Structure formats: C-alpha cells, structure tokens
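Continuing from yesterday's entry. The apo prediction looked reasonable, so today I'm repeating it with zinc ion included to see how the binding region is handled. Same sequence as before; SMILES copied from the compound registry.
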Amino acid sequence: MAQSAYVRPWRCRCDKIRYQDEAAATRVAQSDPDRYGPHFSVYRCPGATCWHITTRGFHPRSLRTRNRIAAYYLARHQAVARWQLVEEMSIDTPSGQRKLGEIIAAFERAGLIRAVSHDVWTAVDRDGLRRIVSVGWDYYQQERAPAVEPAPPLVPPLGLVARLRRWLGRGRPRTPVSSR
Ligand SMILES: [Zn+2]
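Holo prediction written out below.
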C-alpha cells in the first residue's frame, strides 16, 4: 500500500507504461518481439494523451469512452442496432441516449457507417472505426482534418476586380472556347 504513494513517471494513471507518441510506442514494441510478439497494438490512452502498447487487443470495457466503444462494436459486427449499443454501454439515462445519438450521427456524417434500416447501422469504413478504437474520436478527427491553410482574403484582390470589370464591360469574351 505504501508503494502507491511513490510516483513512477513512466507509468500512466491507468498503470501502463507511457510513451510520448505512436511512433515511440511502436518502436519499443517492434524492438522487443520476445515480449510483445507480432500482434501488438498501440493506442492512445483514453484517459490521457500518452500512448500504450497492448498485446491482448482491446476489451470494450477498457476503452472507457462511448465513441471508442461504439466504434469497437460497429467495426466488429456486420450490423449493429441501437438497442445493442445501449445495452453494451449500459446506457440508462436520456442524456446517455442523446450522446449515443450524437456519436452515431457524427460517424454517419464522416462516412464511417450507414443506416441499413431504422436504428440499425453497418460499417462503411472499418479501418476508420478501428482507428477510432485506438485513438479516440477527437484525435481521429484531428488527424483527418486537412492541413490548415491561411484564411482567404475577404476582399477580392484588386487585380481580379479590374479584370472582372473589363470582362463585364466587354460583354461575352470574344475568344471562342474551341477554334473549330
Ligand atoms: Zn494510460
């Protein structure tokens, strides 16, 4: 018991060894095949920003967040009904139901799943769902987001305005699109 007061900086609150990022965790697992074997997975800790290695795959209960659990079942089964997710996640409040509805709608918008009948969904992008199991929905969205580009100017550049004026003043452009 006295040991629990001792802080081990390399351990996460979930008691697993912490790695700074995915590459670091993967490197360690690959460098020690006797310990980790060929079927390890690395994942982002559901309760922290660090990464861990697992050799036993994922257990839905240890995934902790609803989006990861939903992704887990949707990736694993041919079709999943809302009541099954409700049961697996032990949802028993209206806010839990609402949250689940939001997750499903977000997954649909992202093209990960589609409805096959009322309140039943099937996976469209299983790799994407598996990635959510490993990294969580927020991180998944971040890594899928296009690179941030500088915001376009609100006012069109002057050169463009001038060209537009000339074009409008001239009526239809004289140069035909095809010369035949
Ligand atoms: Zn952890």
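Comparison notes:
- The helical segments are 22-31, 33-36, 66-76, 82-88, 94-109, 126-135, 137-144, 158-170.
- The pocket of zinc ion is lined by residues 12, 14, 16, 45, 47-48, 52 (CB under 6 Å).
Will overlay with the apo model tomorrow.
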